[in-house]
Design brief:
Blueprint: E1 10-14, H1 19-30, E2 34-38, H2 42-51, E3 55-57, H3 65-79, E4 84-87, H4 102-130, E5 133-138, H5 154-171, E6 176-183, E7 186-187, E8 202-203, H6 204-214, E9 221-224, H7 226-237, H8 240-251
Parallel strand pairs: 1-2, 1-4, 2-3, 4-5, 5-6, 6-9, 7-8
Helix pairs in contact: 1-6, 3-4, 4-5
Bound molecules: NADP nicotinamide-adenine-dinucleotide phosphate.
NADP nicotinamide-adenine-dinucleotide phosphate binds at residues 14-21, 39-41, 44, 60-63, 88-92, 111, 138, 140, 183, 185-186, 188-191.
Length: 259
């Protein structure tokens, strides 16, 4: 990958041990950005750090608010101000509605939503003091509408999209930009468990490329691939009741289940 010049000197990425986060870390570092890479797996982060100079591992469980605050403090001490944060750590438990499980829902919310909130809480004081900063968070196109097998995951990403809107309204005057990244299906360890068709599946390298092409312009939303985004944005135009009826009809949920 050829080096690009990015508008950030330092970036912090969570969920950087595999998949989209890992590719973002590699691409940003290749473009000269000093990257702090976080995830729980210290061994995988160490491996990512050997693949490209400029990446430093900061192992972390994003569900632990004290640990998040400590890592943000450590990065600031070692790197200086964090210009860009990509809060990308996530977890996915594809589950049918009949198997809905409070513990899995709580764990999904803890990683996908609260993990992002803790990151923002720790980043804001310094960014506000500087009057400068860019916070991106990885949502999903699954946030746009209720979808099958998404009873644990979809609500976490819908919450994140709503949070991003709120923050973007209020934080611009503080000099802080907010971007919500809503990918479609990307071929990563997360989607390896999927036993259903994944239309317009992309590689993690392509996903990172699409994100980093647009992110310097600080858009509110980056969503891809366009083919899937177009279909789901159209579904957003339907009333909730028509969306539910349409999904039942086209996905065969009007037929009696086999017991
Ligand atoms: N792949 C897709 O089709 C797709 C589509 C839409 C949105 N997304 C979103 O994209 C983001 C990246 O997913 P991916 O596809 O690249 O999947 P992935 O390869 O499974 O990456 C998930 C990352 O999150 C980290 N993580 C999970 N739980 C964590 C925790 N408690 N604390 C810290 N890090 C944690 C994982 O590392 P450790 O296990 O080492 O902690 C890993 O680095 C997620 O937010 C996901 O929801 C993915």
């Amino acid at each position: 990958m050829t080096a690009k010049s990015f508008p950030w000197k330092t970036a912090w990425i969570t969920g950087a041990s595999t998949g989209i986060g890992r590719e973002l870390a590699l691409d940003l570092a290749a473009g000269g950005v000093k990257v702090a890479a976080s995830a729980r797996s210290a061994d995988k982060l160490a491996e990512v750090a050997t693949m490209q100079p400029g990446i430093t591992a900061y192992p972390l469980d994003v569900t632990d608010p004290q640990a998040v605050a400590a890592v943000v403090e450590k990065i600031a001490q070692n790197f200086g101000d964090i210009d860009l944060a990509i809060l990308n750590a996530g977890t996915w438990h594809p589950t049918e509605a009949i198997d809905i499980d409070g513990e899995k829902a709580a764990q999904s919310m803890a990683v996908n939503y609260l993990g992002v909130v803790y990151g923002i809480e720790s980043l804001l004081p310094r960014m506000r003091q500087r009057g400068l900063g860019h916070i991106a968070m990885t949502g999903s196109v699954a946030a746009y509408r209720g979808l099958p097998k998404s009873c644990h995951y979809g609500p976490t990403k819908a919450a994140l999209n709503n949070l991003a809107e709120t923050l973007a309204i209020e934080l611009k005057r503080e000099g802080i930009s907010i971007t919500i990244i809503n990918p479609g299906f990307v071929d990563t360890p997360m989607t390896e468990v999927n036993d259903f068709p994944m239309p317009f599946l992309m590689t993690a390298e392509d996903a990172a490329r699409q994100i980093l092409k647009k992110l310097p312009r600080k858009p509110f939303e980056i969503a891809f691939p366009w083919q899937l985004v177009r279909q789901l944005k159209f579904a957003q135009l339907l009333t909730p009741a028509s969306h539910v009826r349409t999904m039942r009809r086209f996905l065969g949920f009007n037929n009696k289940p086999r017991k």
